[in-house]
Amino acid sequence: MLDALKDELLSQVNAAADLSALDEVRVSALGKKGRITGFMKELGNLTPDERKERGQALNALKDEIAAAIDARKADLAAAHLKARLEAERVDVTLPVRPETEGRIHPISQTMDEMIAIFAEMGFSVAEGPDIEDDFHNFTALNFPPGHPARDMHDTFYLPDAGDKKMLLRTHTSPVQVRTMLNNKPPIRIIAPGRTYRSDYDMTHTPMFHQIEGLVIDEATNMGHLKGCLVEFCRAFFDVDDLPLRFRPSFFPFTEPSAEVDIGCSRKGGELKLGNYGDWLEILGCGMVHPNVLEACGIDSTRYQGFAFGMGVERVAMLKYGIPDLRTFFEADLRWLKHYGFAALDIPNIAHGLTR
Ligand code: DAH
Questions:
Q1: Which among 56, 119, 217, 310 could disulfide-bond with 186, CB atoms 3.0 to 4.6 Å apart, if both were Cys?
Q2: Given 3.90.1300.10, 3.30.830.10, 3.30.930.10, 1.20.1560.10, which CATH number is that of 106-330?
Q3: What confidence tens digit (pLDDT) does each residue in 22-45 have?
Q4: Does the Cβ of 196 fall within 6 Å of ligand 1?
Q5: Going by C-beta distance under 8 Å and a sequence separation of 6 or more, which residues neighbour residue 281?
Q6: Is any atom of ligand 1 closer than 6 Å to the C-beta of 308?
């Protein structure tokens, strides 16, 4: 009789199609009200000899069914895992789906391109805080107190908090100061970042981006400055014979100072970069003023070098034909879709910087 029960239960175990069906079989055989449990309860009615024999047989049956359930459980779990792995299979060798929605903002892309070029020339990237003090943003850069150049910066001042006058940095030049105060020459850094001025029209937004460059050692001269910027502009705009014009200018923190124009044509309302006889200003630069070196603890009789500063939006607009500066910060997804860059299209010199 127990043999018949065993065959019946084993076939139920093997027929269980999933874990919950298997558990039903387990409860019906081994649960509190299960069939084997029922027989166990009846053992008390038997004579001691009968009880011994029957008890052993029931225990053996119980163990065999329990083992069969465990084995079936393992099979079902393995089959379940296999089915799930099949269903969730991912081919990691597939190219990115063309419908990928995210885009890299042109500012991020342009900064990455600039960093890639300067990194190739041996510059490293330095950073400083957006909230600066008057010393780093102006005084150490040779803007004397009350100097009219301070007013030209349309500075956002923060409410007075203690002895230091705090402000939103109006340019990335304070990173020059921080770098020179904390490092000994030779120095060769670029500093990309956000800058702020209280101004808003077609060509100005209250927050914008600059990239600053600084090279300090014992021998660097204006010729190196020129070579560096010519090389950068030709690589960045991808025009091999792009002409550059260095025009004398004034900045408190450089002497001599220059503004740099690149060659272009504006014929027919279209802007083209190259040797066409017209000029467009793109950056400021010069030899670091001895007063700045001294304010930063660098011996100006031994060390010298150059600096430059460039507007990131401005060169991005030129390179990618974006007409209105304000659109950069409107967070319009249609604009980003049009002017943005694919997420995996990371700029580097070897693969080219343009799409
Ligand atoms: N800081 C200047 C500005 O925002 C740009 C600049 C000009 C930076 C000349 C320089 C430099 O480092 O040498 O207008």
A1: 217
A2: 3.30.930.10
A3: 999 999 999 999 999 998 899 889
A4: no
A5: 259, 260, 261
A6: yes
